[in-house]
Automatic annotation (TrEMBL):
InterPro entries: Glutathione-S-Trfase_C_sf, Glutathione_S-Trfase, Metaxin_GST, Mito_Protein_Transport_Metaxin, Sam37/metaxin_N. Belongs to the metaxin family. Residues 28-148 form the Mitochondrial outer membrane transport complex Sam37/metaxin N-terminal domain. It comes from Rhipidura dahli. Interacts with MTX1/metaxin-1. Associates with the mitochondrial contact site and cristae organizing system (MICOS) complex, composed of at least MICOS10/MIC10, CHCHD3/MIC19, CHCHD6/MIC25, APOOL/MIC27, IMMT/MIC60, APOO/MIC23/MIC26 and QIL1/MIC13. This complex was also known under the names MINOS or MitOS complex. The MICOS complex associates with mitochondrial outer membrane proteins SAMM50, MTX1 and MTX2 (together described as components of the mitochondrial outer membrane sorting assembly machinery (SAM) complex) and DNAJC11, mitochondrial inner membrane protein TMEM11 and with HSPA9. This is Metaxin-2. One of its GO terms (biological process) is mitochondrion organization.
Length: 262
C-alpha cells in the first residue's frame, strides 16, 4: 500500500529568474513533472546555494519527511519505495526500452545543454558566468563560475565531447529528437495512454529548451522541427501544470520562461 505523502514535501532548486541554468532547470522540471504525474504535491523552494545543499551536489533535490533525495533516478526509486510508480504497468521489455530512451536523453540532451552552457564561449560569457555567479559578490562569483566550468569541461573531455563543434552537438540533439519523435509517433505518451518517468524526463528537457532564451534559437529550432514533440510538451503542460498550482511554482508564472500555449 502507498505510504501517505507529507504535505510539506519540498523540491529545492536555484533561483529561477536570475541564476538557474538551462540544464538544471530542465532536470528540475522533469522531477516536478514526474511528481505531478504521480499526483504527489510538492512545494518548489528556490535557494541560491541549492547546489551546495544537495547530497549529490546536483539539483533538484527533494526533502520529504526526514529524507533528502537528489536527481530524477533516485527520486523515482524513492517514490516507488513509498508505493507510487508510473511504470508498473509496463512489461520487462518495455521497461528496458524505457531505460534505454532515458539514457539517450541524458547522454544527448543533458550533455548538449552542459556543452552549450560551459563550452560555447559566447554563451559562457554572455549567459552562463553572469547567471551562475549572480548571487555572489565579486570575486567569488567568477571563482565559482570558473571552478564549475573547469569541472564540466573535464567531464566533456572524458566522454569525448570536448573536441566537438557546436554544429556537431546540434546534430546530436537532432538525432536524439528524431529517435524520440519516431518512438512517440501519434501516441499521447511514449508508452501509449499513460505517462511514465520517460515522459517526465523528455518533457523537462524539451520544454526548457523550447522556452529558454539563448544567444541563438538553433537549439530550440531542432526541437521545433518535430511537431509531435512540441504537441507532446503542450499536452503535458496543459494536463499537469496549468491550474494545478496557484503559487509561483507554476510554469505559467515563470517570468524567465514563455508558455507554449500562445
Amino acid at each position: 500500500a502507498a505510504e501517505p505523502w507529507p504535505e510539506n514535501a519540498a523540491l529545492y532548486q536555484q533561483l529561477k529568474e536570475e541564476q538557474i541554468l538551462l540544464s538544471d532547470n530542465a532536470s528540475s522540471l522533469a522531477v516536478q513533472a514526474f511528481l505531478q504525474m504521480c499526483n504527489l504535491p510538492i512545494r518548489v523552494i528556490c535557494r541560491a546555494n541549492a547546489e551546495y545543499m544537495s547530497p549529490s551536489g546536483k539539483v533538484p533535490f527533494i526533502h520529504v519527511g526526514n529524507q533528502v533525495v537528489s536527481e530524477l533516478g533516485p527520486i523515482v526509486q524513492f517514490v516507488k519505495a513509498k508505493g507510487h510508480s508510473l511504470s508498473d504497468g509496463l512489461d520487462e521489455v518495455q521497461k528496458a526500452e524505457m531505460k534505454a530512451y532515458m539514457e539517450l536523453v541524458n547522454n544527448m540532451l543533458l550533455t548538449a545543454e552542459l556543452y552549450l552552457q560551459w563550452c560555447d564561449d559566447v554563451t559562457v560569457e554572455e549567459i552562463t558566468h553572469p547567471r551562475y555567479g549572480s548571487p555572489y559578490p565579486w570575486p567569488l562569483n567568477r571563482i565559482l563560475s570558473y571552478q564549475k566550468q573547469w569541472e564540466v569541461r573535464r567531464k566533456m573531455k572524458a566522454i569525448g565531447w570536448a573536441g566537438k563543434t557546436l554544429e556537431q552537438v546540434l546534430e546530436d540533439v537532432d538525432q536524439c529528437c528524431h529517435a524520440l519523435s519516431q518512438r512517440l509517433g501519434t501516441q499521447p505518451y511514449f508508452f501509449n495512454k499513460q505517462p511514465t518517468e520517460l515522459d517526465a524526463l523528455v518533457f523537462g528537457h524539451l520544454f526548457t529548451i523550447l522556452t529558454t532564451q539563448l544567444i541563438t534559437d538553433e537549439l530550440s529550432e531542432k526541437v521545433k522541427n518535430y511537431s509531435n514533440l512540441t504537441a507532446f510538451c503542450r499536452r503535458i503542460e496543459q494536463q499537469y501544470f496549468e491550474g494545478h498550482e496557484k503559487d509561483s511554482s507554476t510554469i505559467a508564472a515563470r517570468s524567465s520562461k514563455k508558455s507554449l500555449l500562445r
